[in-house]
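Hi F.,

I've been meaning to write this up properly since the lab meeting, where we talked about keeping a consistent format for the predictions we share between groups. The idea is simple: the sequence comes first, exactly as it goes in, then the structure tokens exactly as they come out, then a line or two of notes. No screenshots and no reformatting. I'm using this chain as the first example so we have something concrete to point to.
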Amino acid sequence: QAQLVESGGGLVQAGGSLRLSCAADKRTFSSYGMGWFRQAPGKERTFVAAISSSGGRGYYEDSVKGRFTISRDVTKATVYLQMNSLKAEDTGVYYCAVSRTPWTAVVGSRSPQDFTSWGQGTQVTVSS
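Output, unedited:
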């Protein structure tokens, strides 16, 4: 099972920015898509963004479109989530995960059940 290490969370004022990072092993990174999910207190884990192993623009949950950008660095086997114009409702624990199949992110899956090898999570708190 892939080991994922997340970093970059923190406390930021509304309107601010953060960049999350998730490092994976190169074999996993080269073959599978990667996704970001978040979980607010008392709520279920929900999809934020994902990107296939070939890269490209990725795809997003509607509320973060135009504000968040997912990208990947092949040389570092790392996926990033650049979060701009943060809102209080973006607060939560952010997790990265690996797609269960090489096709998961290609077909645009948003279900947590289609991802695996969850990282430990990183807290993002946006103060209003």
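Notes:
The chain has a mean pLDDT of 94.
The chain has one helix and eleven strands.

If this format works for you, I'll send the rest the same way.

G.
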